[in-house]
Amino acid sequence: MIISTKGRYGLRAMFELAKAWGQGPLSLRQIAAAQGLPEPYLEQIFPALKKAGLVDARRGAGGGYGLALPPKEISVGRVLVALEGELTPAECAGGDRTCENADCCTAHAIWQRIYDGINGVIQGISLADMLEDDRRMGASMQNEKRC
User: Fold this and answer.
1) Tens digits of per-residue pLDDT, 10-33?
2) How far apart are CA 78 and CA 49, in angstroms?
């Protein structure tokens, strides 16, 4: 289970929207420039974020995208699942997955524990948490390039 470029770029774009929370929408061009991301790639991933109810789109002059919910209500997990699908380390582990060998397979128990751990962590981190981490890191990384 490796998070693809889509998930990584999407999370960075959502972070940029979280930074602008309450200040009006941002265009994809603004998001791309601020995060060093390719705008055409953002054009491909924002429909999935909108469909998942994570962003709102505003058309016209001064339009763009904004978060559909406050940053504290959007988890990293929701963003990643919207772009990547369910994050699971094995085909037999996961939320709605059933395994006919679950009762007698030690490996299944391990995969399920890994699934539960990873998803527990990513669902427990919000965009607001990312903003707080950025504030703490920003004081020591003033003019350095950040990822």
Assistant:
1) 999 999 999 999 999 999 999 999
2) 9
Quote the pLDDT of residue 108: 85
* C-alpha of 117 from chain center: 17
pLDDT at 14: 98
CA angle (49 as vertex; 43, 51 as ends), nearest 5 = 110
Residues 54, 103 contacting (CB under 8 angstroms): no
pTM over 0.85: yes
Q: What is the 3-state secondary structure (H, E, C) of the chain?
A: CCCCHHHHHHHHHHHHHHHCCCCCCECHHHHHHHHCCCHHHHHHHHHHHHHCCCEEEECCCCCEEEECCCHHHCEHHHHHHHHHCCCCCCCCCCCCCCCCCCCCCHHHHHHHHHHHHHHHHHHCCEHHHHHHHHHHHHCCCCCCCCC
State which residues of the chain have pLDDT below 50: none
